[in-house]
Every structure is written in structure tokens, then in C-alpha cells.
Amino acid sequence: MRIARRAVAFFREDRLFAALFGALLLLYTLPLAIPRVLPLQDYAAHPRIVSVWRALDAPDAKLMRSGYERRSALVPYASFYFTMRALGSVMSLEAAQRVILVVYGWALPLGLLYLLLAFGRDRRYALLAFPLIYNTPFIYGLLPQVLSYPMVLFALGLYKRSLDAPSVARDVGLAVLASVLYLTHLVGFTAFGLAAAVMWAGHVRSLRDGLRHGLFALPSLGLLFIWSTSRIASGELEVRFAPPAEKLAQLSPILNDVLLGMVDELALLGLAATLLCALVIGSRERPPRADWTLAGGAMAVLVGYFALPADVLKPNLNLGTSGRLLCVAVLLLCGLPRARLRGRAALVLAPALLTSVVLGATLTSTFTTFGEQAGRIDEVLAKLPAQRRVLPLIYDAHDGVHRGEPLMHIVKLYQVRKGGYLPQAPVTDVAPFRLRGGVATPQPVWRLPKTFHYLLHGAFYHYFFVIYGAGEKVLDAPVGATPAQAKLVAKAGRFALYKNIGPLRPVD
Asked: pTM of the full predicted structure?
């Protein structure tokens, strides 16, 4: 109750800021709350992982348990999957993921607000976080990664308060938050480590002081050491570095490139214009002691983007490794201006606010349209019995509006809702289970669905689920089969379901 009263009193001090903040919070919540299905590439993949993980404890889910076995859950991503599984005990997994996403959409600007206040910056710069909520990793569905972003902001804000006014409670809170951050995503944990190291160096004045302010990191570093040594021991380390010119060219696509048009790029330009103007008008203000550590932390994360490997190939495949730091770096840069935005000075926010409103309204429209089109999968899934083996054949996973392939994993909603078995996509090394040794199922070449051939792949599956391209005609049978082998039993929009009726029907 005390925290709630302080929050109310805080926003009452500046009602215009509170109104703008609340309006943008509502606007940027709409794309997450309205659509039936969200256009995130891995939208259905995460609930599917939790559904398989949960099935390992269900004796009646033999089909789902047949291909997987349990592994240690204390790995990166664990907090995300534990939270979704906990919420999934009182609601559907799809609803649980939606709740987590809405909380993320609120937490990012609130996290920047908390960081700004910890460093004594003007709270109004928290409005700059909104166009970064829907970033490039978000549209690809890298949800544990984007969930780590607001955690980094809250953790750095708490660390600043701890450095200025140490207390046992803050040390314990930092230790817990750093451990949860590690268990959410290594990118966020790395960004926090880089920025926190600069803050530590700028604040401590003695060896004893340094040890006092570094002890909180021991639990999370212990978890990282145990996991990383076990993974590196399992295979050779192989990484790919990219030249600075390549990384400079990728700044906008990696940071905020959700739509195929230019709306999100314009939002970035608005944010950049506001930051530059604010830096100019605040350049004459004298900074307090250790104020430079926020800029130093932002630069440390930005240097990490340029210096760390672009991709990790072994022992765990992780594409775009260093690029995942970029959003955190820009969020920290939003806290650099020292100018107080009172009176006419507040007009520097105009470019960021205007472009943020345009971006939020555009995303609400495009997300809603996608939800209406992709939501037609419900009509097809209603015709598909539970606990069956289903082979997805995805001819085209794009929607022509959003980046990535938002239909790539959508068939996995079947496993989330009705169990059964899908061969699509391997399980990553950060899931709480793994493929059972020796399990292999017949399927077409990954990314080449038209290599499907009934005589090669048909004997294992009860149904074939096809996603056609926009405007493509729904065929009487999928490519590679005849109507005498696969019967069309349901179609809606770009989705079609075929039942295996040919001579190779599997035995239940």
C-alpha cells in the first residue's frame, strides 16, 4: 500500500506527464490485447514448449512424452517458462503468455522511469521508451530476451540507489533480481553486467567498498559458471565476428524494424531528434559526482554490440548474438540528457511523441488485421481431433506486413490446445526438456515443404496441416500426395487440413 500511495503522489506532481504516460501506455497495450493471434514469429512456440514440459508429468499424455525427456530447468529462459507454467495452472497457456506480454509492455517504460529517477534525470524522458517496446527481437518472438530488457533497467536503477545509499535489503534485492535476470536471458544479464561494472568503477573508493558493492553478483555468477562450463565442455566453441561497417548498417534493422514500411524507422528518427535536442540544451548543466556512469554504462553495452561475436555457432546456436544488446544500449542512452523539460523546453519531446503515436496506432491496426486473418486457424483446429500426429507443411509463413515469418510456428497451437505430436522445429538447449535419444520421425526437408512425398512420410501421420501463401488456391491434396491418399477435411483462409486416408494410414 505504501508503494501504491507513493506512486499516486508521484504522478500527481506532474499531471500532464501522467496523462501522456497513461495515454501511451494504453495505446501500446492495444496491439497486445485486441488481436486473436499476435504476429510474432515464435508466438505459438513458447506455449508449445511449456505444454510439452507439462506433459512430462501427465500420465495420459503418452504421445507428447514419447519424444522428449526432462533436463535441468535452471538454465536461461527458466523464469519465463516457470512463470508461464504457473499462470497456465489457472488459465490457458495462450492467455498466460498474453498476460506476460502486457506486463512487459508496461514494465519497459516504467523501468526507464525508475532508472531516470535513480540518476536524478527528468522523468519525462521515460516517454522515449514507448517506440522501443515493439522492437525487432519482439516481432521475431524472442520473448525471454525482450522480457529481460525492463529487468536490466530496474536492476541498474536499484544498483545506483544501493551505491548511493547501501542497505542489506537492497543487496538482497539485487542478488535476487540479478539471478532472475540470468534465468530469463543471457543477453539481458550480459548488458546488466557491462553497465553495472562501469557504475561500480565510478562509485567505489576503496577495496572494502568495492567488495561490499560486488557481493550481490555472486549467486548469479555461480549459476552462469555452472551452466556455461557444462555447455562449453559438450562441444567446441565456434563464433562469427562481423566487421564494424556491417554492424553500423544493421543498427536500424536490428533495433526496431517491425513493419515492412517506414513507420517504425520514422519513430526511431523522432526519438533520435528528441535526444539530440535535449542533449544540446542540457549541455551547460554541471553534472553531479559519478553522473558519468550512466553514459559509461550505455557506451559499455554499445561497445559490446560492436566487439562481441555477431553469432555463436557452437556449442549452442545463437544468431544475432551481439545485436541483441542494442536495444538495451539505446534505452540507457535515453537517460543521458540532463536538461529539465520545463516550459518551452518540453517541446523537444514533440518529435518522439508524435512519431510514437503514429507507430502505436499503426501497430494496433496491423496487429488487429493479422489477428483476424490468422485467427481463422481456430476453424481448422476445431476439426482436428486431439492426440494425433500432425505434419505441418508451410508453403508460405509471411503475411506481407510484419517482419519475420509470423505463421512459421502457428500450427503448434494444436499441441498447446489438444496435445498430440508435431515434428516441427528442434528443441533448444535452454528448454526444460530435450529430444529423447534415438527418436527420429519422417518429415520433409526443413524449409522445403514441397519435398513432402506421401510414400516417404505418410505412414507416420494422421493429418497434414498446410499453410498456403496469400492468394494461393487450396488444393484437393497437399503437394506430394493424391486425393486418394489425403482427403481435404477443413479449410479457412490460408489454412487447410488433410486427413491421411491412403494405404499408409498409421495404426493408433
From this structure: 0.92
